[in-house]
Write a structure and sequence with these properties.
The structure holds 3 protein chains of 3 kinds. Chain A is α/β, with parallel strands linked by helices. Chain A is built from 11 helices and 14 strands. Chain A is 33% helix and 14% strand. Chain B is α+β, with helices and mostly antiparallel strands. Chain B has one domain: Beta Barrel (OB fold (Dihydrolipoamide Acetyltransferase, E2P)).
Chain lengths: 427, 132, 485
């Protein structure tokens, strides 16, 4: 039928000299059962709870994920579909994402949210670029030194081929961004800070907003712990123009750091400047409610080099997961879970204080905070041997903060595990 | 889509090769998109226009019009300062489709070099362009 | 089965989430609190974000109904060109959900994440072998992110040589992501047209390549489904003037085990794990877009890199010439687990067979349909073929109408109106996982639609008829955007 004698004749346009003579050097194929065995063995080489007691956050958080969500994600009508280009047979994805967008606007108190971005860091980098494109003549942005260090690294990478300047704002004794230091910086198109910040401290967004708006710039609020807004006021209520961050806490497993969920929310004013897919509500030919991808003229497949971003595939299924999580907790549940996170972290903080440890920054925190562990490296190693991971040493990112550790306690951490941690640290 | 013979191309205005029209109103010039352009674009959903007071040279891009799946730049027929923009298009961009020569106008400008007017196409020359 | 596959069944209407439920319901088991509560400052808090309160069964029914309005690869043939919608083996899902992968924290000390690191290291080696390149980073989150990483590598390469350049050559058949990725790096895209055969000619590239051009972005096979025969010669012209060759590997499904792109003169390539290596697409991600490159570009790869030392695997950040970090952590690990499982299941012979069958299936469809649908480039194709609506325009029927009518026949429509070089393009990529019976049914459906176009064009104009909703008013959606409820 296709005009060739054998399957080898299928590639007449490829010159013989480029065709591989040998087979690829890959392991021999495995049966499903052999694969299970091999993968279980590999997976077994990673430390997870309950064997290990982990007090790690810093961008990936341990939260309970109900079985109902895992079950729903098994609906392959969601997972084996492509981006919903044919709306008539993609209404499931489209309504689901529309609901996600809506729940995110409620969580963050913003006007609109996109269908998702890759992760918090890449969303922040694109938000900063928007502030510069908007202002046209200004060439600098301010970024708090308490934005997650990896996020700041990603911003630097995105900015490296441009001529824009990133100015880092130092922090105060409270562990908050030193907003007064902004006053002397000229030419600012935007300002980004994270709340709760990398030290776990909740920032004064209102003052930040007043300062940057007074200079005709854009306030960008970033976050790594979305669950905090289950109880905190949304950044939109403090005047944020763009809110970008990580939604992993909303029902998505840590999975060694990815895939997570980039969240990108904005005011109506910036609607045509933001990157990525947007789902909008409309009607069909019979007048029935339905959903479509809309405002596509911002995007690369239409505007090509003039697009607001190059993003195409995003993290759609993770957005669906987050929507399922928010629907499952509801208003009542998310508030209780968020409160519990705060309760656990406060308990741990108080117990450490009572045991004589220094909590160097006294600003209000959510589920993470910094503690000084004297002789940190040895102590950390000693606890590792007891299968306790005592948070994240942050000296690597803040060389002046020797022996400072970032601890996290979520609703999954039991009191007994915290008591063990304090006892081991003190011994 | 309309055939060329079906297009509405008034005699009393001038045209550009990039499908804008220009009309003298006293000392200023009104600018819009031709019937051909609006028909090619299809349903227009958004129009981005400059601010009053901005100045451009002849041939500069001063805004763009969007349909659902296309974006088209719009260019200055003559150089000048923008003295008025059609605010109605913000909420009802479809006016460009419905009445491209009246309610669907885009901007009004004060020309920098009035002589640039003479280089614009009349209806006959524009028709030649379209058929080209 | 002789009946047309598309049928109407019982579809349940389902309101928006916030139109359901009742205050006080909760769909998650609330953990017990074993410490005393500690209120936050009232000025900082609020009475919750205003979500609806739903029970578990409310949530399950909601999403189950929504899922039934969707069409996935598991529902039926999904011949969406350039998207490689092949079947996704279920064992891959199982492996990715193993606790040791799923629950591993990216900030664990290296010694405690050896399983994850070993998997990444091995998968990087597999991709090196498949492409013939010297080094791989699995970090980019998706194809377009891989392209951006590739452009940053090119930028860093020229900067290190104090020879920064301002332009990049991109063919007219390129995906829109190519020029957009290049523009993010400040490059001015220079458009180049493909030749009469639907492929690039070395002559036309040589004519525009100069010392201010950073390189070329080329998709091979290109988006017409054609193999870029002159790529080695093109690469010579690019290299001669100090430029680099970037290959968009979105269409690698045609080439696994057939050739190594390195041999064609490619310096950098990105792959789409969610296409070629069958990690599902997720209705819009998450994907993964690893980049592979040659030795001279390796120093610029993003950090961290995975290295193997005597005492095991490590995340290594000490690469002073690196472009830096491109994601918060090491990319979409969960997606990598699935691609790794896929490669282990298929092995070298299996991958080669997949590519051969993908190409066989596309050529089969091309031959079966070329007498019915206009085929602008009648040449041996690779993994996809591109038709147009030219034969059907006289019935006032367009590509869109043909695509929408296919839905009624129970098939997902192909990619339409792309590539832009074919007016009214219908781009069909059947993939290797469709059987001959399935392909024959698809062909029959396409032929039946062609007959309908002639005899009953209104069937097409008003299609689809059997879907949950009819054609949607996209103009109204864009004029008065309603993006949240």
């Amino acid at each position: 039928m296709v005009g060739v004698q054998s399957i080898d004749g299928l590639f007449p346009t490829i010159p013989e000299k480029y065709k591989l003579k040998n087979t690829l050097n890959l392991p021999p194929p495995l049966t499903e059962w052999e694969l299970d065995e091999q993968m279980e063995q590999l997976a077994g080489k990673t430390a997870v709870s309950p064997e290990y007691s982990l007090f790690l956050g810093a961008g990936r958080y341990d939260h309970y994920i109900p079985s109902s969500i895992r079950y729903l994600l098994g609906r392959s009508e969601f997972s084996t579909a492509y981006t919903p280009y044919q709306p008539e047979i993609s209404q499931g994805t489209l309504q689901g994402i529309y609901e996600f967008q809506t729940l995110i606007t409620k969580l963050l108190e913003m006007d609109i949210a996109t269908a998702s971005h890759y992760d918090g860091a890449t969303a922040l980098a694109e938000a900063l670029l928007i502030s510069l494109r908007k202002s046209k003549e200004k060439k600098s942005v301010a970024v708090s030194s308490l934005v997650h260090p990896h996020y700041r690294d990603v911003v630097k990478t995105y900015f490296s081929p441009t001529e824009y300047e990133i100015v880092e704002i130092p922090f105060t004794k409270e562990g908050r961004t030193d907003l007064d230091r902004m006053d002397s910086i000229e030419n600012l198109a935007g300002m980004a800070l994270q709340s709760p910040n990398f030290f776990g401290v909740i920032e004064d967004l209102k003052t930040a907003g007043e300062k940057i708006h007074g200079r005709d710039g854009i306030l960008i609020v970033s976050f790594t712990e979305a669950l905090a807004y289950g109880i905190l006021k949304g950044p939109g209520s403090s005047g944020a123009d763009l809110v970008v961050g990580e939604g992993q806490s909303l029902g998505i497993p840590k999975s060694f750091g990815g895939p997570g969920l980039g969240i990108f929310a904005s005011t109506n004013d910036l609607m045509r400047s933001i990157p990525g897919r947007l789902v909008g509500k409309t009607r069909d030919a019979d007048g029935k409610m339905g959903f479509v991808l809309t405002l596509a003229t911002r995007e690369q497949h239409i505007r090509r080099e003039k697009a607001t971003s190059n993003i195409c595939t995003n993290n759609g299924l993770c957005a669906m997961t987050a929507a399922m999580y928010m629907a499952s907790t509801g208003n009542t549940g998310i508030r209780v879970i968020a409160q519990q996170n705060h309760d656990k972290a406060e308990y741990l903080k108080q117990e450490l204080k009572s045991a004589g440890f220094t909590i160097p920054f006294d600003g209000p925190t959510f589920n993470e905070f910094i503690v000084v562990i004297p002789n940190g490296q040895n102590t950390y190693q000693r606890l590792l041997n007891k299968k306790i991971v005592a948070g994240l040493p942050i000296e690597k990112y803040y060389p002046q903060l020797k022996d400072h550790y970032l601890l996290c306690a979520t609703e999954t951490v039991k009191k007994s595990a915290m008591d063990d941690l304090v006892r081991e640290l003190a011994s | 889509m309309k055939e060329i013979s079906e297009l509405n191309l008034p005699e009393d205005i001038r045209y550009t090769k990039t499908h804008e029209w220009a009309k003298k109103i006293g000392k200023t010039i009104k600018v819009g998109l031709t019937d051909y352009a609006q028909n090619q674009l299809g349903d227009i959903v958004f129009v981005e226009l400059p601010k009053i007071g901005e100045s451009f040279s002849k041939g500069d891009e001063f805004g763009n019009v969007e349909s659902v799946k296309a974006v088209s730049e719009i260019y200055m027929p003559v150089g000048g300062e923008v003295v008025a923009v059609n605010q109605e298009l913000e909420s009802t961009p479809e006016l460009v489709n419905q009445n491209p020569y009246s309610e669907g106008w885009l901007i009004e400008l004060k020309p920098t070099h009035p002589a640039e007017w003479d280089a614009l196409l009349d209806k006959a020359a524009y028709l030649v362009e379209l058929k080209g | 089965m002789n009946e047309k596959r598309g049928a109407s069944g019982l579809i349940l209407n389902e309101p928006l989430l916030w139109e359901k439920g009742s205050t006080g319901r909760c769909g998650i088991s609330i953990p017990k609190n074993d410490v005393k509560t500690s209120p936050l400052d009232k000025n900082m808090t609020r009475e919750g974000p205003g979500f609806p309160d739903l029970s578990e069964v409310d949530v399950i029914r909601h999403y189950t109904r929504l899922s039934q309005w969707n069409f996935g690869v598991d529902t039926g043939m999904y011949p969406l060109g350039s998207c490689t919608m092949k079947y996704n083996p279920k064992t891959n899902e199982r492996q990715a959900s193993l606790k040791g992968f799923n629950e591993s924290h990216p900030f664990l000390p290296d010694a405690l994440s050896q399983g994850a690191l070993e998997l990444i290291y091995s998968l990087e080696n597999f991709l090196k072998e498949i492409t013939g390149m010297d080094a791989v980073s699995l970090q980019p989150a998706a194809g377009a992110h891989g392209e951006l990483t590739g452009m940053l590598l090119i930028h860093a390469y020229h900067r290190a040589r104090e020879n920064q350049r301002s332009k990049i050559i991109i063919p007219d058949t390129a995906h829109g992501t190519n020029p957009a990725s290049a523009a993010l790096c400040g490059y001015q895209p220079v458009n180049i047209q493909s030749g009469e055969k639907g492929i690039l000619t070395a002559k036309s590239v040589a004519a525009i390549m100069d010392g201010d051009t950073a390189g070329i972005m080329v998709t091979n096979p290109n988006t017409l489904g054609l193999y870029e025969e002159e790529l080695p010669e093109i690469a010579e012209h690019i290299h001669e003037k100090g430029g680099l060759v970037y290959c968009d590997g979105a269409n690698m499904n045609a080439l696994m085990g057939i050739l190594k792109v390195r041999d064609l003169g490619v310096d950098i390539i990105h792959l789409n794990l969610h296409k070629t290596f069958s990690t599902p697409h997720g209705g819009g991600g998450p994907g993964a877009g690893p980049v592979a490159c040659t030795k001279n570009i390796e120093p610029y790869l993003p950090i961290p890199r995975i290295v193997k030392k005597d005492n095991g695997f490590r995340l290594d950040e000490h690469h002073p010439e690196s472009i830096g970090r491109i994601m918060t952590f090491y990319g979409h690990f969960g997606v990598m687990v699935k691609a790794y499982s896929y490669i282990l299941s298929l092995g070298a012979e299996g991958l080669k067979k997949a590519s051969r069958y993908a190409v066989l299936n596309a050529n089969y469809i091309k031959e079966k349909l070329k007498d019915t649908y206009h085929l602008p480039y009648d040449r041996p194709c690779m993994h996809e073929c591109v038709f147009s609506d030219e034969n059907h325009r006289s019935y006032h029927v367009s590509t869109l109408d043909i695509a929408k009518r296919l839905i009624d026949y129970g098939f997902h429509p192909p990619t339409i109106y792309f590539p832009l070089v074919v007016s009214g393009a219908i781009m069909i990529e059947p993939t290797e996982t469709e059987s001959k019976e399935e392909l024959d049914q698809f062909v029959e459906a396409m032929k039946a639609i062609s007959d309908e176009a002639r005899e009953h064009p209104e069937y097409l104009k008003n299609a689809p008829h059997l879907s949950k909703v009819k054609r949607l008013d996209e103009t109204a959606a864009a004029r008065k955007p309603c993006l949240c409820g």
